[in-house]
Amino acid sequence: MSSTEGTRVGSIDVETALRQHWQLFLIEGIILLVLGSAAILVPALASLAVAIFLGWLFVIGGFVGALVAIAGRRAPGFWWSFISAIVTLIAGCILVFWPIGGTISLTLVLAAFLFADGLLMIFFGLDHRRQLSRRWGWLVANGIIDLLLSAIIFWALPASAFWALGLFVGIDLIFGGWSLVTMSLAARGSV
Hints:
The protein is mainly alpha-helical. 81% of the residues lie in helices and 2% in strands. It has seven helices and two strands.
């Protein structure tokens, strides 16, 4: 394929689509940057919003799951499906009606994930060192940072529940927004 031809995904010419709609990606990127900055500036509010949003997803999923289970009550596994839907519905209600408790629980899950991921990244990096990979140190550094973040979150509980989720979501939104902004500006330049 020549450099003037765009990358094709199915029948979509990605490069052409990016050039034609670069403004939309720019606007989305700017909105994500603003939302990410707001989440970092007010992490407690962002943490509560994450818990409430996740709660509503569980409430809707549990309700739909219960309806589907009841509609197929003669199918094998009816009770397991119905109980699963009820558990999902209860978890959603807890997050929606007691979001502070939800943020603490979600923060514990985040800290546990960072701890496990940190250990795994360190082992992964050390395994790469044995394979003579030149960049194994970055993997170990990533693991150490994950372990430090996990320790900070655990040590600061319950206060960390009011900043950790919001801060991490904000950072993610900023990186996502920045990547869309730079991609859209690069696409604009290729017009």
